[in-house]
Amino acid sequence: xxxxxxxxxxxxxxxxxxxxxxxxxxxxxxxxxxxxxxxxxxxxxxxxxxxxxxxxxxxxx
Length: 61
What we know:
Layout: E1 15-22, E2 25-29, E3 32-36, E4 39-46, H1 52-59
Antiparallel strand pairs: 1-4, 2-3
């Protein structure tokens, strides 16, 4: 990974890119079906500092 891509505060030697693919889905809002388009969520994290529980918390935001 290029040092240019790494956010300030993350050691470039420990930097990892985490990508989560969220598939498209339908949900119901106010009694109507709503289509939610799929997308990919990306983060650059420090592998020594970031845990799976952090990933879960970030996804639910």
